[in-house]
Amino acid sequence: MSLYAVLNDVELEIITWLDGLSMRYGAEYAEQRLIGRKSLLQYTGHKPDEVRIDARLHAQWCNPADEVRRIKDKMDAKEPVAFVLGTGEYRGVFVITEAEVKTTQTDGYGSAIAFELSITLREYVGDPAQPNPPGVVKSGYRIPIEAATVDDFALIEAAPLSSPGGVAQVSADGLSAIARGVGLAADVASFAALAQSNPASALLALPSLTDAVSAFGATVPVEGFGALRGVAAVAADAGQALSAFQSARHTFDVAAGALGGGLSGVSSALWSVRAGAQALEGARESVGRIAAHAASRLPVEGWA
User: Fold this and answer.
1) Distance between CA 229 and CA 295 in Å, rounded?
2) How far is it, in rounded angstroms, from Cα 196 to Cα 218?
């Protein structure tokens, strides 16, 4: 499954979560009433930005009650959270202000099978009498990363590895690798089923699948997480992620070799990619913590 966003240590998967994302942002104006004339408006500041995420949660792909409980626990903790998209894009610091749940399907005993869940996040700027906490975006909502110019994000892209921007880039690479590896393992599983039912069609699809599995190992960010072990604040999580990524790279390379032997190697390849996907899933929590750590320390002062 692909990672959509991270709220500190809570991860939102695309297949589980994404059904809609809306954003609201605006400015505040005080109204001054005048006798016999239209009222005057005076600008007083920006409203806190607001994000609404809608999700369809079904027992076929997740435990709906567990997903709701994770969000409810985070809201009850009254804890400001760093909101980071799966691309590595940092959106700011927010609090969860609302969680609306609607049961849409139950079994014959009344147990919930499917929920519709909407959560509302509001931008958190802390006590105005105190300095802004790390990572707070002061004015306006961040423009989407797709619409940004290169210069807007040069700070992150060119950041040294030991800086928050450099750590954020490596963690984004890690989250992307996890999503791609798990998806590739699912592709090999589907191919194995095709090889059983229609060997002729499987032979035609084998070269492209072999190429994809062969290429994946080189994209696993082993070197990046190896370097992160030298960053004290994330060294422990980087070490755990590195071990998992090294294992995943090896098992996917083994799978590529098995697929190179033709359909006779499909069973062996399937076992290897499943082991690799399991290793990648084991890295997810560590990488998520690294991403959250970097996001809450990004120097975003003045970004729009």
Assistant:
1) 18
2) 29
Q: What is the pLDDT of residues 227-250, one digit of tens each?
A: 888 877 788 888 888 999 999 999
Same domain, residue pair 200 and 290: yes
The structural domain count of the chain equals: 2
Three-state SS letters, 190-201: HHHHHHHHCHHH
Q: What is the pLDDT of residues 71-129, one digit of tens each?
A: 888 889 887 877 776 656 677 788 889 989 888 887 777 777 888 888 899 988 766 66
> Same structural domain for residues 114 and 247?
no
* Residues 211 and 262 reside in one and the same domain: yes
Confirm whether 158 is domain-assigned.
no
Structural domain for 53, as ranges: 3-30+47-148
Cα(200)–Cα(192) distance, rounded to whole angstroms? 13
Phi, psi angle pair for 240, to nearest 5°? -65, -45
Among candidates 187, 164, 181, 178, which has minimal Cα distance to 266?
Answer: 187
Q: Which of 174, 142, 166, 171 is closest to 298 using CA atoms?
A: 166
CA pair distance 24, 280, nearest whole angstrom: 35
Q: What angle do CA 63, 248, 291 make, to 5 degrees?
A: 65
Last residue of a domain, one of 148, 176, 207: 148
